[in-house]
Specification:
The complex is a heterodimer of chains A (453) and B (340).
Chain A lengths: L2 E4 L9 E7 L6 E2 L4 E6 L4 E5 L4 E6 L6 E3 L3 E6 L7 H26 L28 H10 L17 H18 E8 L2 E8 L6 E5 L13 H4 L4 E5 L16 H14 L7 E6 L1 H12 L4 E7 L10 H8 L4 H9 L10 H11 L4 H13 L9 H5 L4 E7 L19 E6 L6 H4 L1 H13 L5
Parallel strand pairs in A: 11-12, 11-13, 13-14, 14-15, 15-16
Antiparallel strand pairs in A: 1-8, 2-4, 2-7, 3-6, 4-5, 6-8, 9-10, 10-12
Chain B lengths: L4 E5 H15 L3 E5 L27 H5 L4 E3 L4 H13 L3 E8 L3 H11 L3 H4 L9 E6 L14 H6 L3 E4 L4 H13 L3 E7 L6 E5 L11 E4 L4 E5 L3 H14 L4 E5 L2 E3 L3 H11 L2 E5 L7 H12 L9 E4 L9 H7 L3 H12 L1
Parallel strand pairs in B: 2-3, 2-4, 4-5, 5-7, 6-7, 10-11, 10-13, 13-14
Antiparallel strand pairs in B: 1-8, 6-12, 9-11
Helix pairs in contact in B: 1-7, 3-4, 8-12, 9-10
The chains are: A alpha/beta (453), B alpha/beta (340).
Chain lengths: 453, 340
């Protein structure tokens, strides 16, 4: 059975993706896990790997073209599998029909019929696709779909002959809005007078996972990870005090202080956040580790991503760039230090960081945090002993060409009794961005596995 | 200043309009077959005189005399030609072409003379002529006395065409036509002559070119012409009970056409039906559909539908004649098709 490759959804707000380059062309053999296409979303460019081993049978979206999330972008056949062009077209039609029906089910629940004595059920007519494969939608519906970023292939038509009308598009857009707001809730939580900005998503009864970003960042760093995690876990990603959109009071920004603050933040959250798994990146890794050491009873599992606290070296150049008066150019250069592929630095991300950095108090908080953790361009806090003695399952993930904190620091985790180390090839300091698919898969597997204690 | 309103029939409103304008302007004359109809002739009693084949101009000759209200021979080519000549040389005649179906015998005078005078003389001549003519099926008058044919006139440059649907519009549009300096044809639907409505007293002028929204709605635009406005209003009542809110646009003037009112309405409702009793090919209905497809394509949420007479002459058989005229039921069914 051939596999249809769909446009991935990398951020909660991602609606379309742009095909930058097909690394494999039609007719070429592909190995499972091998990058086959480079796709650009609003904030990042990423490679997508082949989900199966086989052959690129057809490419549906050409380089330079965009497609909505969920749309078929390629067909991969299994080794030895032969498909005629007609069969490929048939497969794609069936796939579109299934997606459409799924959307229709969602839409149907919200469809309220016009007040008609004779007819109380909405006339959802099947097959809005005409024989030529073109979606049957009115001109007004097409225009509105474009404005609202709605994929007409996923909309059920209730107009004449099953034609998709404006109301159908409106409803689909509202539905998508409702679904995403059920999934993700942006909140501002008051922690002893400090407003902390965070995102909460995922099933209410699922295991808790808290994401802690690194120096100079915000929870947006996890935007390629959160949607996937939120399907299996109840996730919370926060902007640390002094960072992102959270308050930036004059306070103690040392790692132990931020770890204590994290505990008070979790206390202040609605719902059950007493026992959580933590995913920390860079300085966030050190904070997570310090939290685990101070509140062991509150920690399930720990994931440290290119973490601070496991050695003394750190790239002084990037710290100096962070200390400087913020400019978009400076931030762009700073970000190139974080990635193995500097092409990943998108202008939108630079702009967003710049806007955060120029907020009142942002620079002071950043300077204070940097000074406490990395004063003199050396890591001031050593948590190696804490890590080694931690009676927890720990996963350490590192990019093999991290230019900010050397990959050698990952070796510390090999001494952890219940530790695992994963080095991701072709990644710099942010493997969760640079190889989001692989990262998500292995971290979710680690967090979701049955306890081996 | 508050304008006094009086209940009048469509026929009375037309009579009133002619009277107002003849009182106001001595250049206005009325001519046609039986427009006086024997009135003021000594051995005939005025009450027995025709005053127009359906009595619309009754009483005018008594007030204005035979010099201004002229009975003509049954020679359309002759008296329409005379009216074109009179108009181009200083009078403002109102000529009655009894049934529009007769236009063939005087077509040269209308479209090749009257309509083109201004153009042929480089703007130095004009033809301030009004031709009143009866249209419409429903009276059992058969194929040669029942057509609409305003589409043919609207097709011709140089002719203005107005199609009043109510007594007030009949008065206003006719006075507007009389005051207009070009050839205006006023199409009076004979099935509306006995329809009553509020009509402003005194002079009341609606210049050609301004549509009227006869009923506001949000779900569908129904552009309806002449008597079809009433069919559409009846349909709108039925639709309202089904939760569908129809907006009825009466163009009132087909040439010039008030495009903005139609386009604005479609921009609001996103659906369009044109209801027209004229034959469907190369018609005002197809013209309005083309206008909207051209200028408001991306507003459309459904195909444009036309509810028209078939492409045949008007049948004499009463059941067939009823079938021929677009009915409120057909309008309702078409709207339902579009609104799902």
């Amino acid at each position: 059975m051939a596999t249809i490759l769909n446009m991935p959804k990398w951020g909660l707000s991602m609606k379309t993706g742009l095909i930058v380059e097909w690394l494999k062309k039609a007719g070429e053999a592909v190995q499972q896990g091998e990058p086959i296409v480079e796709i650009e979303s609003e904030k990042a460019t990423n490679e997508v790997e082949a989900p199966v081993t086989g052959m690129m049978r057809s490419i549906e979206i050409q380089e330079g073209d965009s497609a909505p999330v969920g749309a078929a972008i390629a067909v991969i056949t299994l080794p030895g599998e032969e498909l005629s062009d007609k069969q490929v077209a048939e497969l794609l039609r069936e796939d579109a029909e299934i997606k459409r029906q799924r959307a229709e089910m969602l839409t149907r629940q919200r469809t309220t019929p016009k007040a008609s004595a004779a007819d109380t059920s909405p006339r959802v007519v099947r097959a809005p696709t005409s024989s030529g494969g073109r979606v049957n939608a009115s001109p007004a519906a097409r225009r509105l779909a474009q404005e609202l970023g709605v994929d007409l292939a996923t909309v059920a038509g209730t107009g004449p002959g099953g034609m998709i009308g404006r109301e159908d598009v409106q409803r689909a857009a509202e539905e998508a809005e409702a679904v995403s707001s059920e999934e993700a809730e942006e909140k501002v939580v008051d922690v002893e007078g400090v407003a902390i900005h965070c995102l909460i998503a995922g099933p209410a009864d699922a295991p808790r996972v808290v994401f802690v970003h690194g120096l100079g960042g915000s929870y947006e760093t996890w935007s390629l990870n959160l949607p996937g995690f939120a399907e299996q876990f109840r996730i919370c990603a926060l902007d640390l005090a002094g960072a992102g959109s959270s308050d930036k009071p004059a306070m103690d920004y040392s790692v132990p202080s931020l770890a204590d603050f994290l505990a008070r933040f979790l206390d202040a959250l609605d719902g059950e956040w007493q026992r959580v798994s933590l995913v920390g990146h860079s300085l966030g890794g050190a904070i997570a580790l310090a939290f685990a050491s101070r509140y062991p009873e509150r920690v399930e599992r720990l994931v440290l991503v290119d973490s601070a606290g496991l050695g003394s070296e750190i790239d002084g150049e990037v710290l100096n760039l962070m200390r400087a008066e913020p400019t978009t150019e400076g931030i762009r250069v700073e970000l190139t230090h974080f990635f193995a592929h500097s092409g990943l630095v998108q202008q939108a991300l630079v702009e967003e960081l710049y806007q955060q950095r120029i907020q009142p108090g942002a620079r002071e908080a950043l300077l204070a945090t940097t000074e406490a953790a990395f004063g003199g361009n050396r890591q001031r806090i050593d948590l190696r002993e804490t890590l080694v003695s931690l009676p927890k399952e720990v996963l350490v993930v590192w990019g093999n060409v991290d230019g900010v904190i050397p990959v050698a620091h990952a070796q510390e985790a090999r001494l952890v009794p219940k530790g695992k180390v994963e080095i991701l090839e072709g990644c710099g300091h942010c493997p969760h961005i640079e190889r989001a698919d692989v990262f998500n898969k292995l971290v979710m597997a680690f967090l979701g596995a049955e306890a081996s204690l | 200043m508050a304008v006094a309103i009086r209940q009048m029939t469509y026929a009375q409103a037309i009579n009133d309009a002619i009277r107002m304008e003849m009182r106001r302007d001595p250049r206005v004359i009325l001519m046609g077959e039986d427009v006086a109809g024997g009135a003021t002739i000594a051995h005939l009693q005025d009450d027995e005189a025709w005053g127009g084949v359906l009595g619309v101009t009754k009483g005018l000759v008594q007030e204005f005399g035979r010099n201004r209200v002229l009975d003509t021979p049954i020679t359309e080519a002759g008296f329409i030609g005379a009216a074109v000549g009179a108009a181009s040389t200083g009078l403002r005649p109102i000529a009655e072409l009894m049934f529009v179906d007769f236009f063939g015998v005087c077509w040269d005078q209308i479209f090749d003379q009257g309509a083109k005078l201004r153009y042929m003389f480089g703007g130095k001549a004009s033809c301030p002529l009004v031709i009143r003519t009866m249209i419409g099926a429903g009276m059992g008058a058969a194929g040669q006395h029942s057509g609409c044919h305003y589409s043919v006139f609207t097709h011709m440059p140089g002719i203005k065409t107005v199609v009043p649907s109510t007594p007030a519009d009949a008065k206003g549009l006719l006075e507007g036509a009389i005051r207009d300096d070009d050839l205006v044809v006023v199409f009076e639907n004979k099935m509306l002559y006995n329809v009553s409505g509020d009509v402003p007293e005194g002079e009341y002028v609606i210049p050609p070119g301004k549509a009227d929204i006869k009923r506001e709605g949000i779900d569908i635009t129904i552009v309806a012409i002449s008597r079809m406005v009433h069919q559409a209003l009846e349909a709108a009542d039925t639709l309202q009970a089904q939760g569908i809110s129809a907006e009825i646009v009466d163009p009132r003037s087909l040439s010039p056409l008030d495009e903005d009112t139609i386009l604005d309405s479609v921009a609001k409702t996103h659906r369009l039906i044109v209801v027209d009793e004229d034959n469907p090919r190369c018609s005002v209905a197809t013209d309005i559909a083309a206008l909207v497809a051209d200028k408001a394509f991306s507003e459309l949420d459904a195909p444009i539908k036309l509810v028209t007479a078939p492409h045949t002459p008007v049948p004499f058989s009463p059941p067939l004649e009823q079938f021929y005229i677009p009915s409120p039921e057909r309008i309702v069914a078409t709207v339902q098709e579009l609104t799902g």
